[in-house]
């Protein structure tokens, strides 16, 4: 409310209070009936008089006719370098500029070009530190940086930029996509290679460092299979020796299974035992287990399972062609089968019961000496009575 508008209101308030006093005294009203309204009128007049007038609204300033106006121009598809050589940004933007009044009186034939050069220089300072893969991020950064006006180097114009459009050529975009894919693939391959190297080092330098460490490693992974761990001591010792380019230690040689080439004759009956008396000195040639091509001698004669058992039968002096030897071997095979080892039982029957002595309970005539059947392969007995 302006100051000139408050005076009539203050006057009306005081006049209302005065009229209330005059009427009350002349009419003989009770004191409270005219004093209270008069007091209210006076207080209202005081409040109206002391109220602060609001500040007048500022009038819009008239434009200075001497101040130069902003002009607009456009720059399109200008190559700006990126941080990666030979991969340029394609820059487009709107440039606003105006002359700067100066006391020297110097003028320029094309002030718009000064404004464009200023904006491009500022944009270049940003793009040459950025990678082309971050195209959208760089574009937003340019809009922020170029949005303030700055004078050019000659201080003849001041310029600012906006509406920035930044892009890459289709060829560069395709190349960058391929490079990114190759880089990711190479990174995965490098991680796989390091993993393989670490695994080889773990196996070679720790797990297979010695037969004992190999057994402990296997048992740690299969702590409920102690029996299987014992059966694998030989193969693990052989694996440890191969991993360290060393021969198998003598301590484990008798536990290493022989090659399959040595076990096949026993399984197929193509290397039978020769009878006593075939040799000039009347001795017994037991076949490949007495003279193995390579490898240890002693209790490992013959393939796994058969060699040690054959040695045991020789140690208890059971002749190779005696019925007692066949009965003994058959009972061992039956006991092995009953213990849940059918493969080992089959090896015992085929290796030790195919020398001309049928198993107890088998049908005569179904097998011959040297494993040559008359008509069909012989039927082995299951158990002795």
Keywords:
385 residues, alpha+beta, Tetrahydropterin Synthase, Chain A, 4 domains, four-stranded antiparallel β-sheet
Task: Provide an overview of this structure.
There is one protein chain. By secondary structure, the protein is of the alpha+beta class. The chain has four domains: 3-50; 71-170, Tetrahydropterin Synthase, Chain A (2-Layer Sandwich), CATH 3.30.479; 207-255, no CATH class; 260-277 and 293-371, no CATH class. The chain is built from twelve helices and four strands, in the order H-H-E-E-H-H-E-E-H-H-H-H-H-H-H-H. A four-stranded antiparallel β-sheet has the order 1-2-4-3. Helix 1 (3-27) packs antiparallel against helix 2 and helix 11 (323-338) runs antiparallel to helix 12. It is elongated, with a radius of gyration of 56 Å. The relative contact order is 0.05. Mean pLDDT is 74; it is low at 260-302 and 355-385.
Strand content: 5-15%
Q: Mean pLDDT across all residues, rounded?
A: 74
CATH architecture of the largest domain: 2-Layer Sandwich
Number of helices: 12
- Tell me how many strands there are: 4
The low-pLDDT segments are: 260-302, 355-385
Largest sheet: 4 strands, antiparallel
Tell me the radius of gyration.
Answer: 56 Å
Oligomer: single chain
Shape descriptor: elongated
Share of helical residues: 40-55%
Number of structural domains: 4
Q: Report the end-to-end length measured between terminal Cα atoms.
A: 131 Å
Order of helices and strands: HHEEHHEEHHHHHHHH
Structural classification: alpha+beta
Strand order of the largest sheet: 1-2-4-3
CATH class call of the largest domain: Alpha Beta
CATH topology of the largest domain: Tetrahydropterin Synthase, Chain A
């Amino acid at each position: 409310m302006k100051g000139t508008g408050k005076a009539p209101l203050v006057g009306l308030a005081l006049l209302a209070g005065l009229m209330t006093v005059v009427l009350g005294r002349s009419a003989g009203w009770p004191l409270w009936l005219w004093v209270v309204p008069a007091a209210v009128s006076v207080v209202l007049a005081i409040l109206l008089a002391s109220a602060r007038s609001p500040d007048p609204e500022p009038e819009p300033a008239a434009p200075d006719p001497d101040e130069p106006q902003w002009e607009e121009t456009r720059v399109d598809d200008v190559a700006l370098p990126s941080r990666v050589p030979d991969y340029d940004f394609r820059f487009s933007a709107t440039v606003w500029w105006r002359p700067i009044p100066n006391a020297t009186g110097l003028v320029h034939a094309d002030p718009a070009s000064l404004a464009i050069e200023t904006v491009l220089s500022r944009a270049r300072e940003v793009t040459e530190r950025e990678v082309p893969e971050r195209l959208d991020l760089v574009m937003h950064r340019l809009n922020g940086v170029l949005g303030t006006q700055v004078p050019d180097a000659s201080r003849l114009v001041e310029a600012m930029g906006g509406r920035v459009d930044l892009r890459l050529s289709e060829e560069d975009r395709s190349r960058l996509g391929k490079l990114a894919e190759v880089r990711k693939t190479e990174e995965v391959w490098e991680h796989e290679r390091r993993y393989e190297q670490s695994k080889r080092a773990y196996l070679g330098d720790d797990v297979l460092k010695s037969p004992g460490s190999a057994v402990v490693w296997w048992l740690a992974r299969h702590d409920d299979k102690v029996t299987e761990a014992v059966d694998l001591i030989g193969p693990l010792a052989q694996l440890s020796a191969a991993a360290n380019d060393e021969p198998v230690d003598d301590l484990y040689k008798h536990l290493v299974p022989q090659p399959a080439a040595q076990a096949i004759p026993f399984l197929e009956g193509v290397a039978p035992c020769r009878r006593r008396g075939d040799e000039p000195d009347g001795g017994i040639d037991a076949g490949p287990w007495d003279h193995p091509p390579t490898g240890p001698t002693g209790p490992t004669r013959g393939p796994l399972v058969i060699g040690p058992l054959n040695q045991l039968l020789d140690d208890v002096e059971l002749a190779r062609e005696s019925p007692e030897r066949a009965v003994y071997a058959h009972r061992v095979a039956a006991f092995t089968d009953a213990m849940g080892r059918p493969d080992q039982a089959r090896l015992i029957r085929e290796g030790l019961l195919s020398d001309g002595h049928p198993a107890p309970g088998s049908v005569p005539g179904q097998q011959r000496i040297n494993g040559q059947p008359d008509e069909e392969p012989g039927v082995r007995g299951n158990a002795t009575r």
